[in-house]
Amino acid sequence: MHAPYQCHKQRGREQTTKQEPWSRPCVLLLPKASRSMAVTDKRTRRRGKGGLSRYKTAAGERWRWRLYVPIDVEHPEQGEKRIGKAGFSTMSDAEDSMQAAVSERRQTGTVQTNDLVTFGDYARTWLDGRRLASTTLIGYEKKLNAHIYPNIGTVPLNRITAARLAKLYRDLERSGRADKGHEGEGLGPNSVRKVHTIISSVLQAAVDEGLLQRNVARSKTANPPTMTEIEAAKDEINPWTVDELQAFTTWAADNDDLAALWFTAAHTGLRRGELLALRWGDIDLARKTLSVRRAVVVVKTRPERLEVKKPKSGHTRVVDLDEATIITLKKWRSTLAQVNIAFTARNANVFGRLDDNGTRHPDNVSRRWRSAVDRCARYCVERQQTPPHEISLHDVRHTHATLMLQAGVHPKVVQERLGHSTITITLNLYSHVLPTVQREAVAAFERLLETA
Questions:
Q1: Higher pLDDT, 49 or 218
Q2: Distant-in-sequence contacts of 182-188, Cβ < 8 A, 24+ apart
Q3: Domain 242-443 classified CATH 1.10.3570.10?
């Protein structure tokens, strides 16, 4: 293989024939057998040179080429920018594409590589190179396949405009849902914002590689949903009152074999996945503490699978337990010991399946919760008692936080128990409780002055 330009030797130094700045030659760098990734020769890369390199993706080895072209052919004093194209299956394909680019540069002084790269092609290469948790990766793929590729996947990178993105976001808000049973309905602001975040990340990567001059997704014209709009669209929190919670836990103690799980959820505020990942070694009954070290998540592959990972906060947190929860957990452990003593070992699941102690599927547990609430309601109605209103299992977590705040517990303590990354999240979520807390604080302050 011959380099596209021939260099001349003068006095032991390599020099190129004098040419205009915009037509500076591009030396093709050949791969070395002893190198596995970035492929260059022993000469130092200088501006004006180009090169091939290979990289690994989930789909296998891929090749890319890069070279430098003027920022503005009419104004060579502005310098050069790096451009390139990736995603080639073989070095030969990448070399052919680079040779064509070199030829175009020779004729025009620049190369319009981004006309050759569509958003979809580049996004797939970008995603292959990302180090993400499996659940996050699947979430990205789902949004790309459902909302992004069908709309702008075939559009060249340099044809993506802020106005086009704004139109895409409005279309998604009107009729963007593609999930079964909701086809054609509008996507919520939070979902559209996540689509925007992915698009912006892809375009920024293209900017960083020299394929684009700027990231149009960051323009005000793109107009994605704002955080204010996202907050306004969120469903209101639907917690139980103290009486409703006590009515349910009292009924469950005698009528539901997962009563210990429901009780622990209500008295700790743990997330569903955190509860299902608890092991007996995480609970110190003597010190009355519980350590949240992991969580169970559903990975929506085909077939789907369960995965145990770090909790959402990314680190372990310790939650203090009240005496009633300690008694409940001791009784539950005694029940498990009667089934199989191995189910009470330190590495055994606290709320595992009763046949093999395997991890329960989170969705099945949520169905069990809805069934329990419905049976409790019927029980109350039959006895002419006020039934607890219907709530989700996640609302039990909100119930725990709401009741603690109403009891005067400091929001910082509630934040730590729930595992929120910042206190701002806690305050925003439970702002409905704060006016009552503030009134009680004023009353307490007034009583303090009266007794002084």
A1: 218
A2: 187/147, 188/233
A3: no
